[in-house]
Design a protein that fits this description.
Largest sheet: none
Number of domains: 1
Shape: globular
Order of helices and strands: HHHHHHHH
Organism: Parasteatoda tepidariorum (Common house spider)
Radius of gyration: 18 Å
GO biological process, one term: meiotic chromosome condensation
Strand content: under 5%
Number of strands: 0
Distance between the termini: 41 Å
Structural class: mainly alpha
GO molecular function: histone binding
Protein name: Condensin complex subunit 1 N-terminal domain-containing protein
Pfam families: Cnd1_N (PF12922)
Helix content: 55-70%
């Protein structure tokens, strides 16, 4: 389990800097190691869905940091498993927060608060880097002189990604519709998390396919 408070960083690389006050990534993994571990994620999810985020957070951060080095299959596998974990977490939180007037154990709040923030952070980061790569390829293609037809985002995103993008939006909305502020004391969700999620949503809305 995570013993330090997770704080949404300004940059991903900030998580790779040691800190005694907040959570930081403990391990730096190679591409080969990450590829092998991603193949085991689904089994790990079924074996221990509650501890999945804490166990594999560093792996996901390393994957995101080296995003360009991985093939489509590896990236989609990692995203889909994480989305499934988020759905399981939603059900757990829905049950835990069912009674809005019930006072929760502080240790339990700490665990679920960290789990929630870490999961949301990873989902947002993966979605964000995916979208950025698609946009970069689209812009680069349109810079090429002599191109008869202007390239669009559709030309560079995989057939599977639009469905995963929608899945991301649905999951995040579901999580924030829960009374998750109960996990904080005082019951105010930290602005770093709100701002981070909001910025990712705005970037997605810039894509006409999502905005429709």
């Amino acid at each position: 389990m995570c013993e330090s408070e997770f704080v949404v960083p300004f940059r991903l690389d900030d998580l790779f800097m040691n800190s005694s006050r907040q959570y930081s990534v403990q391990e730096v993994y190679s591409k080969q190691y990450i590829t092998v571990e991603v193949l085991q994620l689904k089994r790990s999810m079924y074996d221990d869905s509650d501890g999945f985020i804490f166990k594999h957070f560093d792996l996901y951060c390393n994957l995101i940091r080296q995003f360009k080095d991985f093939d489509e299959s590896t990236l989609l596998t990692a995203f889909r498993v994480l989305a499934q974990v988020a759905e399981k977490m939603f059900k757990s939180l829905e049950s835990l927060l069912e009674d809005e007037d019930e006072e929760l154990d502080q240790d339990l709040c700490f665990t679920y608060r960290n789990m929630l923030k870490m999961c949301i952070y990873l989902l947002c980061q993966l979605t964000n880097v995916y979208e950025e790569e698609i946009l970069k390829k689209t812009i680069a293609a349109n810079i090429v002189k002599g191109r008869r037809k202007k390239a669009s985002v559709d030309d560079f995103e995989s057939k599977e990604w639009p469905e995963e993008r929608v899945k991301f939006l649905v999951i995040i909305k579901k999580l924030f519709r829960l009374p998750i502020k109960k996990l904080w004391s005082p019951p105010i969700i930290e602005h770093e998390l709100i701002n981070f999620v909001t910025n990712v949503f705005f970037k997605l809305l810039e894509n006409a396919d999502v905005a429709r």
